[in-house]
Write a structure and sequence with these properties.
Oligomer: heterodimer
Radius of gyration of chain B: 22 Å
Order of helices and strands of chain A: EHEHHHEHE
Structural class of chain B: mainly alpha
Largest sheet of chain A: 4 strands, antiparallel
Strand content of chain A: 15-25%
Number of strands of chain A: 4
Strand order of the largest sheet of chain A: 2-3-1-4
Number of helices of chain B: 17
Number of helices of chain A: 5
Order of helices and strands of chain B: HHHHHHHHHHHHHHHHH
Number of strands of chain B: 0
Strand content of chain B: under 5%
Largest sheet of chain B: none
């Protein structure tokens, strides 16, 4: 059982929060995470979060889907069990396109979802600590991890000077 | 550009006329072989028709784009809206040219060789030329009704272009929400009208060339081609204006959205193209499949390479190049793709119009390039003149602020 302590700055306004994130990061303090009731435009940039690389995964999963679909149809209908359908050649590419398209989309979509679950560690047993329930309602909560030797008063002043209306402390047991 | 185009065209015509004259001496041999040569006149006519249909489409799509932005209460596009707005300025010229190309041959020779059905001997029972299928369609396809329809499309399109444009210009002077609200109503009405007229004009101007053939996808197909070309033209103009130092407030976020439009609708065009092709290919019914027989393998493989080139440049190229986020935000990539799409869809219309009018005799030489350049020159002249008439930024548009801060 390890426990971590967090300092929570509670904000009331979106713009104040965005400015606060910038100046707190500029002051050299590492922000653990920010909890907001809804996605805030531009918050990724100020928090310094890199753009997701999920599109690359999507592309390669899609490519797998395309090749699998084409291989499956060409092999099955052209070589393994050739059948004449509508007087067309065994390997009649135009008629394979719809299935290829569907499998491409399916593989890209499933590949993305599964990759996302694995990378972000989302699984049924996952316990997410709720820092402050008000972050699901009308408050924005910024969490800063409290390490050994951090000056709480200094953090308190930093948060308050940047517009936090409350500063709390929370211990999370993992 | 008009000058260069005209010179090329005249030279091309002279060459064609001379070689045609040379063939005239050997006409006996050709006639005995049952070989019918489409002359340079037909070739010129087909080219005029092709370029005019293409550019008119692009120009109406400009008005359509504006109408959609109003109806959708779109904010992002405000900074670039003057570009599609000015695209519509070609409609009037397009209408005059199209009426002339359609009516003049009928006045002088009795029928227009571009549109086979205008030959009235096809409709007369007992005439050796009598064609029951075309005669059966004469309730819709007759010269009078066709002319009325053509005038109606152009008048409607032009009026809505003018109204939307005037509202937008008046808004610059007066401000307030009145002009905006009125534009929304105008836009909504135009969408309904364009929904009907775009399909009908496609049947009239392009589908009726292959009079026997029919396709329920055709209106959509032509529309998809026009729409993606219009989007590419808009994007290209925005990029060029930005590189020339205008439109400073347009950022890569706006380009990203335009890029998504171009990317998405080049796939949409492919989807429509394929839906039409696959059903006819699969069913393989002679009167339906003949259309693709002429283009793929027929006419001594005359059109086969254009058929595949069409798919390559209009689908594969934009699809692969514009797939990443960065490509849509870079001017150079977007520019290349837009130019490719504009050329590609010219060839798309070439594929629709030439096999029906020129059979296996169509070419790609001085006449084609000359006519295309002439039309492009006239189009650009009208377009740039209209563009320079007003501020590139609609200063009193209610969503201007939103567009300036647009971020994706």
């Amino acid at each position: 059982m390890t426990s971590k302590k967090y300092i929570l700055g509670v904000f009331e306004d979106e713009d104040v929060l965005l400015n606060a994130i910038e100046s707190i990061r500029a002051a050299g303090t590492k922000i653990y995470d920010v909890f907001t009731p809804y996605p805030i435009h531009g918050i990724d940039d100020v928090l310094g979060i890199q753009r997701s690389r999920l599109p690359i995964v999507a592309f390669f999963c899609g490519l797998c889907g395309t090749s699998f679909a084409l291989w499956m149809q060409i092999y099955m209908l052209g070589f393994d069990w050739p059948m004449i359908i509508g007087g067309k050649p065994h390997v009649a590419l135009p008629s394979f396109i719809p299935v290829t398209f569907e499998l491409t989309v399916l593989c890209a979509a499933f590949g993305m979802v599964i990759t996302f679950f694995i990378i972000s560690g989302l699984r049924p047993t996952l316990k997410v600590p709720v820092m402050d329930v008000r972050s699901t309602d009308d408050k924005y909560v910024m969490a800063i991890e409290l390490k050994e030797g951090t000056d709480i008063n200094k953090l308190n002043d930093l948060l308050r000077s940047n517009g936090a209306i409350e500063v709390n402390e929370k211990e999370v047991v993992k | 550009m008009i000058g260069i185009g005209l010179v090329l065209l005249v030279v091309g015509l002279l060459i064609a006329a001379n070689s045609g004259g040379g063939h005239g001496e050997a006409a006996h041999g050709a006639a005995q072989a049952g070989h019918h040569t489409a002359g340079w006149g037909q070739r010129l006519l087909a080219n005029l028709w092709l370029n005019n249909v293409y550019l008119t489409g692009i120009s109406v799509v400009g008005v359509l784009f504006i109408a959609i932005q109003y109806v959708a209460y779109a904010g992002w596009s405000v900074l670039i809206k003057r570009v599609p707005e000015a695209l519509g300025s070609y409609i009037l010229i397009g209408g005059i040219v199209m009426l002339a190309v359609f009516l003049l041959p009928i006045i002088f020779t009795g029928h227009n060789t571009l549109l086979h059905w205008t030959d009235h001997s096809l409709h007369e029972v007992g005439n050796p030329n009598y064609d029951p299928i075309i005669a059966g369609k004469s309730g819709y396809l007759n010269v009078t009704f066709f002319t009325i329809r053509m005038v109606a499309y152009f008048v409607l399109w032009f009026l809505f272009f003018k109204w939307l444009r005037n509202e937008s210009l008046a808004e610059d002077l007066n401000g307030g929400l009145n002009h905006y609200n009125k534009s929304i109503r105008l836009g909504a009405t135009f969408l309904v009208i364009f929904g009907v007229t775009s399909s009908m004009s496609a049947w009239d101007w392009v589908l009726s060339i292959d009079t026997h053939w029919f396709s329920t996808m055709f209106g959509w197909y032509v529309f998809a081609s026009w729409w993606v070309s219009g989007l590419a033209a808009t994007t290209l103009t925005v990029i060029i204006l930005k590189q020339m130092g205008y439109m400073k407030m347009v950022t890569s976020n706006h380009l990203h959205d335009l890029g998504k439009f171009v990317f998405g609708f080049s796939i949409f065009w492919t989807y429509i193209w394929f839906s039409q092709f696959m059903l006819y290919w699969y069913a393989n019914i002679p009167e339906e499949a003949i259309y693709f027989m002429e283009r793929l393998g027929g006419n001594n493989n005359h059109y086969t390479w254009i058929f595949f080139f069409n798919l390559l440049i209009n689908f594969a190229f934009p699809f692969l190049v514009l797939m990443t986020r960065d490509a849509k935000r870079q001017m150079i990539m977007l520019k290349i793709v837009c130019i490719a799409i504009l050329i590609g869809h010219w060839f798309d219309f070439y594929m629709m119009i030439m096999p029906g009018t020129m059979r296996g005799e169509s070419g790609f030489g001085l006449i084609e390039i000359g006519t295309a350049l002439t039309f492009l020159g006239v189009f650009l002249l009208r377009f740039t003149k209209e563009l320079s008439k007003a501020s590139l930024v609609p200063v009193n548009h209610p969503f201007l602020e939103e567009s300036v801060h647009h971020h994706v």
